[in-house]
Amino acid sequence: MSGSIQATKVTAGLTAVELVHVTDEAAGRGDGRITYEILNNGTATLYIDGENTVTTATGSPIPAGGARTLNLRLGAKVWGISTSATQDIRILKVG
Prior knowledge:
Helices cover 0% and strands 52% of the residues. The chain contains no helices and eight strands. The protein is mainly beta.
């Protein structure tokens, strides 16, 4: 791991939005993974999945104020959708 940290803000709502797309060459180093933390800084539940067809019925929930840590490989994508518009989502990439 190179030791760098990068924070990004994304707005999620009632339609699926891409939260993460691992395109970083750092994913090819070490075990080929980069760690991301997805923080739901909004007021409604965020649902995530690896497909742009994620729904509130099929996604993995992250409650308001909750977070999820994911170790992702090059090419991986994470999509999110919420039960309410304009939800504040923070993405922290470590790698």
